[in-house]
Amino acid sequence: MDTSLLTSKFDTLGARAKVRAVGHSAPRYVGGRMEAPQPVVIDIGHDRRGEFFDIQTRGQADVEVLDVQAKDRHLLLMVRQPATRPGRPDLKDKFLCGHDERHWFVAAIPEGKSVSTVVTAKEALKPDIVRILERGRKGKRQHRLRRKTDVFVRQGEWFFLPAPEVRADEKLVLRHEPIRRGRGKPHLCEFLYRLGGNLVYVCGRYPNGLLSPAYHKLLRNNPAAARWNWRSMQRDPVVYVRGKISHSDHATIRLDGWHRVVMNTEHQSRAMAAVAFLD
User: Strands across the sheet with 40-47, in order?
Assistant: First the structure.
């Protein structure tokens, strides 16, 4: 792997990248299960000069840039890992690296999608419902990648789709409610209306939550877990928001009328485990 070539590609974006080999590390206990160390971990680091892409490699992982869009300040990164068994194909994970409004970010691309450019990577990160709504619409493809189109308004990983048909029960409307992905910083919604979903119990050790049977089993096996600052939340509900949506890393947006909330497809990716940075 030519690290000087790799860092020069980031230079064209006006970004800095530090590539470093790290030694062996033991499996970690994450979200209630053991996880093997990733061959590559990509983080957004900070030093006296500001933000930089911190790319940590171990073993035989190879990192290369497939596409650079300097004007757009985005590039597509591919991580290739040797097959774990003879006769199996190498594993290839892809990451979109770029600048979104105020900060640099890394987004893992779901496997199984034909992605070779920045544009196709952005398309692959769109939720299926967005892609369905865009079918047959006229206009340049690049216009569909803006943060605001006639189909959606986007803030970070969240897409907001107009839903004028919604008639919310005002008694169930929540004010100043957060939406978040895992351990990421929350996006604060002025008004939020939630339908359906599954009750889960969330704490720092289980950021994605435990369903009720798993939660109560954990407490039976480990009574001390009751002191882990749990809160009850709904997983996978249909969520609608309106009013101001704010986040420290993004410009505040204002939604007139109810909008359905959907997340990008990054959570469907195996490669997401290699992304240490969450906004």
Answer: 17-21, 50-57, 40-47
